[in-house]
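Annual report, structural modelling task.

Input specification for the flavin-adenine dinucleotide complex:
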Amino acid sequence: AADNKEEKNGSTGAVAGRQAPNIITRDFVFDYLIVGAGFSGSVIAERLASDGKKVLIVDKRNHIGGNAYDHYDEHGVLVHKYGPHIFHTNSRDVFEYLSRFTQWRAYEHRVLASVDGQLVPIPINLDTINKLYGMNLNSFEAEEFFKSLAEPKEYIQTSEDVVISKVGRVLYEKFFRNYTRKQWGLDPSELDKSVIARIPTRTNRDDRYFTDSYQAMPLHGFTRMFETMLNHSNIKVMLNTDYREIEKAIPCREMVYTGPVDEFFEYRFGKLPYRSLEFKHETHNTQVFQTAPVINYPNEHLYTRVTEFKYLTGQEHAKTSIVYEYPQAEGDPYYPVPRPENQEVYKQYKALAESIPGVYFVGRLATYKYYNMDQCVAQALSVYKQIAVKA
Ligand code: FAD
Ligand code: UDP
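The model returned the following structure:
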Protein backbone atom coordinates (compact mmCIF):
# COMPACT_ATOMS: atom_id res chain seq x y z
CA ALA A 1 0.00 0.00 0.00
CA ALA A 2 2.95 2.27 0.60
CA ASP A 3 4.17 1.98 -2.97
CA ASN A 4 3.92 5.23 -4.79
CA LYS A 5 1.80 5.52 -7.88
CA GLU A 6 4.56 6.41 -10.34
CA GLU A 7 6.44 3.22 -9.56
CA LYS A 8 3.31 1.13 -9.95
CA ASN A 9 2.52 2.75 -13.25
CA GLY A 10 6.06 2.24 -14.34
CA SER A 11 6.30 5.91 -15.29
CA THR A 12 9.87 7.12 -15.17
CA GLY A 13 11.46 10.12 -16.84
CA ALA A 14 11.26 13.37 -14.90
CA VAL A 15 9.73 11.66 -11.88
CA ALA A 16 12.49 9.12 -11.42
CA GLY A 17 15.09 11.78 -12.16
CA ARG A 18 14.24 14.02 -9.22
CA GLN A 19 13.28 11.41 -6.65
CA ALA A 20 15.27 10.29 -3.68
CA PRO A 21 16.19 6.55 -3.69
CA ASN A 22 13.32 4.08 -3.74
CA ILE A 23 13.85 3.06 -0.20
CA ILE A 24 12.67 6.51 0.84
CA THR A 25 9.91 7.07 -1.71
CA ARG A 26 8.28 3.80 -0.70
CA ASP A 27 7.60 5.30 2.73
CA PHE A 28 5.29 8.00 1.39
CA VAL A 29 1.61 7.09 1.59
CA PHE A 30 0.68 10.45 0.13
CA ASP A 31 2.41 12.45 -2.53
CA TYR A 32 1.03 15.74 -1.25
CA LEU A 33 -0.09 17.12 2.08
CA ILE A 34 -2.44 20.03 1.50
CA VAL A 35 -3.09 22.31 4.44
CA GLY A 36 -6.49 24.02 4.25
CA ALA A 37 -9.63 22.82 2.44
CA GLY A 38 -10.76 26.23 1.17
CA PHE A 39 -10.75 27.26 -2.49
CA SER A 40 -6.96 27.32 -2.74
CA GLY A 41 -6.30 23.92 -1.18
CA SER A 42 -9.29 22.17 -2.72
CA VAL A 43 -8.51 23.24 -6.29
CA ILE A 44 -4.93 22.01 -6.04
CA ALA A 45 -6.06 18.77 -4.38
CA GLU A 46 -8.55 18.09 -7.16
CA ARG A 47 -6.05 18.83 -9.93
CA LEU A 48 -3.28 16.68 -8.45
CA ALA A 49 -5.68 13.82 -7.70
CA SER A 50 -6.90 13.84 -11.27
CA ASP A 51 -3.26 13.35 -12.33
CA GLY A 52 -3.11 10.21 -10.21
CA LYS A 53 -1.34 11.75 -7.24
CA LYS A 54 -2.29 10.67 -3.73
CA VAL A 55 -3.41 13.67 -1.73
CA LEU A 56 -4.09 14.22 1.96
CA ILE A 57 -5.98 17.45 2.62
CA VAL A 58 -6.29 18.57 6.23
CA ASP A 59 -8.22 21.40 7.81
CA LYS A 60 -8.26 22.40 11.43
CA ARG A 61 -11.92 23.36 11.16
CA ASN A 62 -14.69 20.75 11.25
CA HIS A 63 -15.71 21.39 7.64
CA ILE A 64 -14.39 21.85 4.11
CA GLY A 65 -14.84 25.03 2.02
CA GLY A 66 -12.72 27.42 4.11
CA ASN A 67 -14.37 30.80 4.45
CA ALA A 68 -16.77 30.03 1.61
CA TYR A 69 -18.44 27.29 3.68
CA ASP A 70 -22.25 27.35 3.71
CA HIS A 71 -24.76 25.17 5.55
CA TYR A 72 -28.42 24.91 6.49
CA ASP A 73 -28.96 26.55 9.86
CA GLU A 74 -31.21 25.10 12.55
CA HIS A 75 -34.26 26.61 10.82
CA GLY A 76 -33.36 25.08 7.47
CA VAL A 77 -32.17 28.30 5.85
CA LEU A 78 -28.98 28.10 3.77
CA VAL A 79 -26.46 30.54 5.27
CA HIS A 80 -22.79 31.43 4.80
CA LYS A 81 -21.09 30.85 8.12
CA TYR A 82 -18.29 33.36 7.44
CA GLY A 83 -20.28 36.17 5.84
CA PRO A 84 -21.75 36.76 2.38
CA HIS A 85 -19.92 35.09 -0.51
CA ILE A 86 -20.94 36.09 -4.01
CA PHE A 87 -19.18 34.50 -6.94
CA HIS A 88 -18.09 36.77 -9.80
CA THR A 89 -15.27 36.59 -12.30
CA ASN A 90 -14.08 37.80 -15.67
CA SER A 91 -12.10 34.62 -16.19
CA ARG A 92 -13.71 32.14 -18.50
CA ASP A 93 -11.12 29.54 -17.45
CA VAL A 94 -12.03 29.88 -13.79
CA PHE A 95 -15.76 29.76 -14.47
CA GLU A 96 -15.47 26.73 -16.74
CA TYR A 97 -13.22 24.94 -14.29
CA LEU A 98 -15.68 25.39 -11.40
CA SER A 99 -18.58 24.46 -13.66
CA ARG A 100 -17.27 20.89 -13.60
CA PHE A 101 -18.35 20.70 -9.97
CA THR A 102 -21.56 22.67 -9.81
CA GLN A 103 -24.53 23.99 -11.70
CA TRP A 104 -25.18 27.68 -11.26
CA ARG A 105 -27.97 30.05 -10.38
CA ALA A 106 -27.68 33.42 -12.17
CA TYR A 107 -27.33 36.12 -9.54
CA GLU A 108 -26.29 39.76 -9.80
CA HIS A 109 -25.51 41.30 -6.46
CA ARG A 110 -26.99 44.65 -5.34
CA VAL A 111 -26.20 46.66 -2.22
CA LEU A 112 -27.81 49.68 -0.56
CA ALA A 113 -26.07 52.03 1.86
CA SER A 114 -27.80 53.75 4.74
CA VAL A 115 -26.77 57.41 4.42
CA ASP A 116 -28.47 60.54 5.78
CA GLY A 117 -31.53 58.52 6.76
CA GLN A 118 -32.04 57.04 3.27
CA LEU A 119 -31.16 53.76 1.59
CA VAL A 120 -29.28 54.52 -1.62
CA PRO A 121 -27.34 52.41 -4.14
CA ILE A 122 -23.64 51.73 -3.51
CA PRO A 123 -21.43 51.86 -5.67
CA ILE A 124 -22.41 55.52 -5.97
CA ASN A 125 -24.34 55.97 -9.23
CA LEU A 126 -26.70 58.48 -10.83
CA ASP A 127 -29.64 57.41 -8.66
CA THR A 128 -27.52 57.65 -5.51
CA ILE A 129 -26.78 61.34 -5.92
CA ASN A 130 -30.20 62.22 -7.29
CA LYS A 131 -31.87 60.58 -4.29
CA LEU A 132 -29.40 61.94 -1.77
CA TYR A 133 -29.65 65.55 -2.97
CA GLY A 134 -33.21 65.53 -4.39
CA MET A 135 -31.86 66.27 -7.87
CA ASN A 136 -32.79 65.05 -11.31
CA LEU A 137 -29.44 65.02 -13.10
CA ASN A 138 -28.69 63.03 -16.23
CA SER A 139 -25.44 61.10 -16.72
CA PHE A 140 -23.66 64.03 -18.33
CA GLU A 141 -24.67 66.37 -15.53
CA ALA A 142 -23.68 63.80 -12.92
CA GLU A 143 -20.21 63.67 -14.41
CA GLU A 144 -20.00 67.46 -14.17
CA PHE A 145 -21.30 67.27 -10.61
CA PHE A 146 -18.59 64.79 -9.56
CA LYS A 147 -15.97 66.91 -11.31
CA SER A 148 -17.08 69.98 -9.41
CA LEU A 149 -16.61 68.08 -6.12
CA ALA A 150 -13.43 66.17 -6.98
CA GLU A 151 -10.05 67.22 -5.60
CA PRO A 152 -7.62 65.97 -8.25
CA LYS A 153 -4.39 64.40 -6.93
CA GLU A 154 -1.22 63.91 -8.89
CA TYR A 155 -0.32 60.64 -7.16
CA ILE A 156 -3.05 58.29 -6.02
CA GLN A 157 -1.52 56.22 -3.24
CA THR A 158 -4.04 55.68 -0.51
CA SER A 159 -7.68 54.68 -0.37
CA GLU A 160 -8.52 58.25 0.66
CA ASP A 161 -6.86 59.60 -2.51
CA VAL A 162 -8.94 57.25 -4.66
CA VAL A 163 -12.30 58.62 -3.52
CA ILE A 164 -11.45 62.26 -2.93
CA SER A 165 -9.86 62.57 -6.36
CA LYS A 166 -13.00 61.18 -7.96
CA VAL A 167 -15.96 62.52 -5.97
CA GLY A 168 -14.57 64.86 -3.33
CA ARG A 169 -14.59 65.00 0.44
CA VAL A 170 -18.31 65.20 1.19
CA LEU A 171 -19.27 61.94 -0.51
CA TYR A 172 -16.07 60.39 0.83
CA GLU A 173 -17.20 61.15 4.35
CA LYS A 174 -20.76 59.96 3.81
CA PHE A 175 -19.92 56.60 2.21
CA PHE A 176 -16.31 55.59 2.76
CA ARG A 177 -14.46 57.15 5.64
CA ASN A 178 -16.36 55.69 8.56
CA TYR A 179 -17.11 52.33 6.93
CA THR A 180 -13.41 51.88 6.31
CA ARG A 181 -12.41 52.96 9.80
CA LYS A 182 -14.84 50.42 11.19
CA GLN A 183 -13.87 47.63 8.82
CA TRP A 184 -10.10 47.98 9.07
CA GLY A 185 -9.51 49.93 12.29
CA LEU A 186 -7.54 52.32 10.05
CA ASP A 187 -8.23 55.57 8.28
CA PRO A 188 -8.48 55.25 4.46
CA SER A 189 -5.37 57.44 4.28
CA GLU A 190 -3.47 54.56 5.95
CA LEU A 191 -4.67 51.89 3.49
CA ASP A 192 -3.41 51.06 0.04
CA LYS A 193 -5.48 52.50 -2.83
CA SER A 194 -6.42 48.97 -3.93
CA VAL A 195 -8.86 48.56 -1.02
CA ILE A 196 -11.39 51.25 -1.89
CA ALA A 197 -10.58 50.99 -5.59
CA ARG A 198 -12.69 47.80 -5.41
CA ILE A 199 -15.74 50.11 -5.38
CA PRO A 200 -16.26 52.12 -8.60
CA THR A 201 -18.19 55.38 -9.09
CA ARG A 202 -20.77 55.48 -11.87
CA THR A 203 -22.65 58.17 -13.72
CA ASN A 204 -25.19 55.71 -15.14
CA ARG A 205 -27.95 53.85 -13.30
CA ASP A 206 -26.20 50.48 -13.10
CA ASP A 207 -26.73 49.43 -9.47
CA ARG A 208 -24.94 46.08 -9.61
CA TYR A 209 -22.14 45.63 -7.08
CA PHE A 210 -20.02 43.80 -9.67
CA THR A 211 -19.81 44.13 -13.44
CA ASP A 212 -17.89 40.90 -14.15
CA SER A 213 -18.91 38.84 -17.15
CA TYR A 214 -19.72 35.79 -15.01
CA GLN A 215 -21.87 36.32 -11.92
CA ALA A 216 -23.57 33.32 -10.35
CA MET A 217 -24.05 31.29 -7.20
CA PRO A 218 -23.47 27.53 -6.98
CA LEU A 219 -26.98 26.12 -7.38
CA HIS A 220 -26.78 23.87 -4.32
CA GLY A 221 -24.34 26.01 -2.38
CA PHE A 222 -20.57 26.28 -2.04
CA THR A 223 -20.14 23.33 0.30
CA ARG A 224 -21.84 20.96 -2.12
CA MET A 225 -19.49 22.20 -4.83
CA PHE A 226 -16.46 21.51 -2.60
CA GLU A 227 -17.79 18.03 -1.79
CA THR A 228 -17.96 17.21 -5.47
CA MET A 229 -14.49 18.62 -6.02
CA LEU A 230 -12.93 16.56 -3.24
CA ASN A 231 -14.90 13.38 -3.93
CA HIS A 232 -12.05 11.46 -5.54
CA SER A 233 -10.47 8.13 -4.65
CA ASN A 234 -7.03 9.76 -4.58
CA ILE A 235 -8.08 12.37 -1.99
CA LYS A 236 -8.36 11.78 1.73
CA VAL A 237 -9.92 14.59 3.75
CA MET A 238 -8.97 14.94 7.41
CA LEU A 239 -10.93 17.53 9.43
CA ASN A 240 -10.40 18.87 12.96
CA THR A 241 -6.70 18.48 12.31
CA ASP A 242 -3.93 21.03 12.50
CA TYR A 243 -1.28 19.85 10.06
CA ARG A 244 1.34 20.13 12.78
CA GLU A 245 -0.35 17.24 14.61
CA ILE A 246 0.20 14.84 11.72
CA GLU A 247 3.04 16.07 9.53
CA LYS A 248 5.61 13.90 11.29
CA ALA A 249 3.38 10.85 11.58
CA ILE A 250 2.25 10.97 7.95
CA PRO A 251 5.17 12.01 5.81
CA CYS A 252 4.30 13.36 2.39
CA ARG A 253 6.61 14.13 -0.47
CA GLU A 254 5.56 17.75 -0.88
CA MET A 255 3.26 20.20 0.82
CA VAL A 256 0.83 22.93 -0.21
CA TYR A 257 0.14 25.41 2.57
CA THR A 258 -2.87 27.77 2.51
CA GLY A 259 -2.90 29.02 6.13
CA PRO A 260 -1.43 32.32 7.37
CA VAL A 261 2.18 32.62 6.21
CA ASP A 262 3.47 34.24 9.42
CA GLU A 263 2.08 31.37 11.50
CA PHE A 264 3.91 28.82 9.34
CA PHE A 265 7.20 30.48 10.27
CA GLU A 266 6.23 30.97 13.91
CA TYR A 267 6.09 34.74 13.50
CA ARG A 268 9.85 34.98 12.91
CA PHE A 269 9.57 38.45 11.37
CA GLY A 270 6.68 39.53 13.58
CA LYS A 271 2.94 39.09 13.29
CA LEU A 272 1.29 40.05 10.01
CA PRO A 273 -2.02 41.75 10.74
CA TYR A 274 -5.09 39.93 9.44
CA ARG A 275 -8.40 41.69 10.06
CA SER A 276 -11.09 39.56 11.64
CA LEU A 277 -14.86 39.71 11.99
CA GLU A 278 -17.42 38.49 14.44
CA PHE A 279 -20.55 37.21 12.75
CA LYS A 280 -23.90 37.55 14.49
CA HIS A 281 -26.40 35.26 12.79
CA GLU A 282 -30.14 35.67 13.35
CA THR A 283 -33.28 34.05 11.98
CA HIS A 284 -36.52 36.02 11.74
CA ASN A 285 -40.01 34.64 11.57
CA THR A 286 -40.87 36.57 8.43
CA GLN A 287 -40.35 35.92 4.72
CA VAL A 288 -38.37 39.09 4.07
CA PHE A 289 -36.24 41.07 6.52
CA GLN A 290 -34.78 43.94 4.46
CA THR A 291 -35.20 45.53 1.03
CA ALA A 292 -31.83 44.47 -0.41
CA PRO A 293 -29.48 41.46 -0.22
CA VAL A 294 -26.93 43.57 1.67
CA ILE A 295 -27.33 46.90 3.44
CA ASN A 296 -24.15 48.78 4.36
CA TYR A 297 -24.07 51.03 7.43
CA PRO A 298 -21.11 53.37 7.00
CA ASN A 299 -22.04 55.79 9.78
CA GLU A 300 -24.29 53.93 12.21
CA HIS A 301 -23.84 50.87 14.42
CA LEU A 302 -20.77 48.84 15.28
CA TYR A 303 -21.42 46.43 12.40
CA THR A 304 -20.56 47.28 8.80
CA ARG A 305 -23.31 45.47 6.92
CA VAL A 306 -26.32 43.19 7.16
CA THR A 307 -26.84 40.35 4.68
CA GLU A 308 -30.08 38.48 4.05
CA PHE A 309 -29.09 35.13 2.59
CA LYS A 310 -32.24 34.15 0.73
CA TYR A 311 -31.57 36.88 -1.85
CA LEU A 312 -28.20 35.27 -2.59
CA THR A 313 -29.28 31.65 -2.58
CA GLY A 314 -32.77 31.99 -4.09
CA GLN A 315 -34.12 29.70 -1.38
CA GLU A 316 -37.82 29.93 -0.59
CA HIS A 317 -38.62 29.60 3.08
CA ALA A 318 -41.19 30.96 5.52
CA LYS A 319 -38.36 32.32 7.71
CA THR A 320 -35.30 34.33 6.79
CA SER A 321 -31.74 34.35 8.13
CA ILE A 322 -29.40 37.33 8.26
CA VAL A 323 -25.89 38.08 9.44
CA TYR A 324 -24.29 41.16 10.98
CA GLU A 325 -20.54 41.68 10.54
CA TYR A 326 -18.62 43.23 13.44
CA PRO A 327 -14.98 43.95 12.56
CA GLN A 328 -12.31 42.89 15.07
CA ALA A 329 -8.53 42.97 15.38
CA GLU A 330 -8.33 39.53 16.99
CA GLY A 331 -9.92 36.27 15.90
CA ASP A 332 -9.84 34.04 12.84
CA PRO A 333 -7.76 35.65 10.07
CA TYR A 334 -10.07 36.87 7.28
CA TYR A 335 -8.49 39.84 5.55
CA PRO A 336 -4.83 40.64 4.89
CA VAL A 337 -4.41 44.37 5.53
CA PRO A 338 -3.03 46.07 2.40
CA ARG A 339 -0.63 48.81 3.47
CA PRO A 340 3.05 49.42 2.73
CA GLU A 341 4.51 48.45 6.13
CA ASN A 342 2.69 45.10 6.09
CA GLN A 343 3.88 44.48 2.55
CA GLU A 344 7.46 44.97 3.77
CA VAL A 345 7.04 42.33 6.47
CA TYR A 346 5.29 40.00 4.01
CA LYS A 347 8.23 40.34 1.59
CA GLN A 348 10.51 38.82 4.22
CA TYR A 349 8.15 35.89 4.71
CA LYS A 350 7.81 35.49 0.96
CA ALA A 351 11.58 35.27 0.48
CA LEU A 352 11.78 32.65 3.22
CA ALA A 353 8.84 30.72 1.75
CA GLU A 354 10.53 30.63 -1.64
CA SER A 355 13.70 29.23 -0.10
CA ILE A 356 11.98 26.16 1.31
CA PRO A 357 11.96 23.33 -1.20
CA GLY A 358 8.86 21.18 -1.52
CA VAL A 359 6.43 23.61 0.12
CA TYR A 360 4.08 25.76 -1.97
CA PHE A 361 2.34 28.77 -0.43
CA VAL A 362 -1.05 29.50 -1.99
CA GLY A 363 -4.16 31.58 -1.29
CA ARG A 364 -5.39 34.65 0.49
CA LEU A 365 -3.66 33.94 3.82
CA ALA A 366 -0.45 32.28 2.63
CA THR A 367 0.34 34.92 -0.01
CA TYR A 368 -1.13 37.78 2.03
CA LYS A 369 -3.31 39.07 -0.80
CA TYR A 370 -6.82 40.52 -0.62
CA TYR A 371 -8.07 37.95 -3.15
CA ASN A 372 -11.64 37.18 -4.14
CA MET A 373 -12.62 33.54 -4.61
CA ASP A 374 -12.00 33.57 -8.36
CA GLN A 375 -8.52 35.01 -7.87
CA CYS A 376 -7.76 32.18 -5.43
CA VAL A 377 -8.92 29.64 -8.02
CA ALA A 378 -6.79 31.27 -10.74
CA GLN A 379 -3.75 31.36 -8.49
CA ALA A 380 -4.26 27.75 -7.40
CA LEU A 381 -4.59 26.56 -11.00
CA SER A 382 -1.39 28.34 -11.88
CA VAL A 383 0.54 26.89 -8.90
CA TYR A 384 -0.82 23.46 -9.80
CA LYS A 385 0.72 23.85 -13.26
CA GLN A 386 4.09 24.67 -11.70
CA ILE A 387 3.85 21.60 -9.48
CA ALA A 388 2.76 19.37 -12.35
CA VAL A 389 5.64 20.47 -14.57
CA LYS A 390 8.14 19.47 -11.88
CA ALA A 391 6.44 16.22 -10.85
P1 FAD B 1 -9.49 30.08 3.33
O1 FAD B 1 -10.86 29.96 2.79
O2 FAD B 1 -9.23 30.98 4.49
O3 FAD B 1 -9.00 28.61 3.67
C1 FAD B 1 -7.84 28.35 4.43
C2 FAD B 1 -8.12 27.13 5.28
O4 FAD B 1 -6.89 26.72 5.90
C3 FAD B 1 -9.11 27.40 6.41
O5 FAD B 1 -10.23 26.55 6.29
C4 FAD B 1 -8.29 27.12 7.68
O6 FAD B 1 -9.07 26.49 8.70
C5 FAD B 1 -7.20 26.20 7.17
N1 FAD B 1 -5.98 26.23 7.99
C6 FAD B 1 -5.26 27.31 8.35
N2 FAD B 1 -4.22 26.94 9.13
C7 FAD B 1 -4.30 25.59 9.26
C8 FAD B 1 -3.50 24.63 9.95
N3 FAD B 1 -2.44 24.98 10.69
N4 FAD B 1 -3.85 23.31 9.86
C9 FAD B 1 -4.96 22.94 9.15
N5 FAD B 1 -5.74 23.83 8.49
C10 FAD B 1 -5.41 25.14 8.54
N6 FAD B 1 -14.73 36.44 -2.27
C11 FAD B 1 -15.51 36.59 -3.37
O7 FAD B 1 -15.09 36.24 -4.48
N7 FAD B 1 -16.79 37.09 -3.26
C12 FAD B 1 -17.31 37.47 -2.06
O8 FAD B 1 -18.47 37.91 -2.00
C13 FAD B 1 -16.51 37.34 -0.90
N8 FAD B 1 -16.99 37.70 0.30
C14 FAD B 1 -16.22 37.55 1.41
C15 FAD B 1 -16.75 37.92 2.64
C16 FAD B 1 -15.99 37.76 3.79
C17 FAD B 1 -16.58 38.18 5.11
C18 FAD B 1 -14.68 37.22 3.71
C19 FAD B 1 -13.85 37.05 4.95
C20 FAD B 1 -14.15 36.86 2.49
C21 FAD B 1 -14.90 37.01 1.33
N9 FAD B 1 -14.41 36.63 0.07
C22 FAD B 1 -15.19 36.79 -1.05
C23 FAD B 1 -13.05 36.10 -0.08
C24 FAD B 1 -13.01 34.56 -0.04
O9 FAD B 1 -13.47 34.12 1.21
C25 FAD B 1 -11.57 34.11 -0.23
O10 FAD B 1 -11.03 34.62 -1.42
C26 FAD B 1 -11.40 32.59 -0.28
O11 FAD B 1 -12.36 31.92 0.49
C27 FAD B 1 -10.01 32.25 0.21
O12 FAD B 1 -9.76 30.88 0.04
P2 FAD B 1 -8.42 30.24 0.62
O13 FAD B 1 -8.51 28.79 0.36
O14 FAD B 1 -7.23 30.97 0.12
O15 FAD B 1 -8.46 30.55 2.20
N1 UDP C 1 -16.19 50.45 1.41
C1 UDP C 1 -16.70 51.58 2.04
N2 UDP C 1 -18.06 51.77 2.06
C2 UDP C 1 -18.92 50.88 1.51
C3 UDP C 1 -18.41 49.73 0.88
C4 UDP C 1 -17.04 49.54 0.86
O1 UDP C 1 -15.94 52.38 2.56
O2 UDP C 1 -20.15 51.10 1.58
C5 UDP C 1 -14.72 50.26 1.38
C6 UDP C 1 -14.23 49.59 2.66
O3 UDP C 1 -12.93 50.04 2.94
C7 UDP C 1 -14.24 48.13 2.27
C8 UDP C 1 -13.72 48.22 0.84
O4 UDP C 1 -14.35 49.41 0.31
O5 UDP C 1 -13.41 47.36 3.10
C9 UDP C 1 -14.02 47.03 -0.04
O6 UDP C 1 -15.41 46.75 0.01
P1 UDP C 1 -15.97 45.31 -0.34
O7 UDP C 1 -17.46 45.37 -0.27
O8 UDP C 1 -15.35 44.85 -1.60
O9 UDP C 1 -15.41 44.45 0.88
P2 UDP C 1 -15.50 42.88 1.24
O10 UDP C 1 -16.77 42.35 0.62
O11 UDP C 1 -14.24 42.27 0.70
O12 UDP C 1 -15.54 42.89 2.73
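Residues 1-18, 21-25 have pLDDT under 50 and may be disordered.
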